[in-house]
Specification:
By secondary structure, the protein is an alpha/beta fold. The chain is built from seven helices and ten strands. 40% of the residues are buried.
Amino acid sequence: MIVFQNVTKTYNHNVTAIDKINFKIQPGEFVSIVGLSGAGKSTVIKLLIGEEKPTKGQIFFGSYEINKLRPSELPEFRRHIGVIFQDFRLLSKKTAFENIAFALEVAGRSQKQINELVPQVLDLVGIKDKMFNFPAELSGGEKQRVAIARAMINRPEVLVADEPTGNLDPFNTWEVIKLLTKINELGSTLILATHSNEIVNTLGRRVVTLDNGKIIRDEENGRFMI
């Protein structure tokens, strides 16, 4: 379970990005965190993965109290969370296979395991035939599928997608959303940060709405209403 308890995040010059927010996410949920640009969506993601620490409040992920983790403890903690970004963040000089294998190498997996697991996850995201292509040889949608495969490869309990369709055309946007839904159905908790009302309203899942750093709505089968 993920718990945000009275969490506030203030940056320099007293800019409050998140203001006393409270919410829980149960294992296996698909939750969209929505709001206009600057509402606080990305700050919530950064706090969840330990990239930022809250100014006040507590954040829990299972047995971890994230706000109390030391820098040396973060790598182990982050193996429980896969993150997908809008800008893909692929290594340009590594093939699709190598980009995903790198995440396994960091986790200490053997070459035998890498050779078995990478083709499996590439097959799951539908681009096994592109495993030896470099990012420059892939379309935007294919790059995002590699990024999703990389985020999934260590089988994290939670997958966080921060504006994952922001750089994609409509066709690839819906292909990625269908893939994220499939991953959720396979058992992973899915957290989607987006400002796309069309995606959120089509999904018909739980929606947490942020406005100026505050939660203004938290609804099952919610809609994007700002």
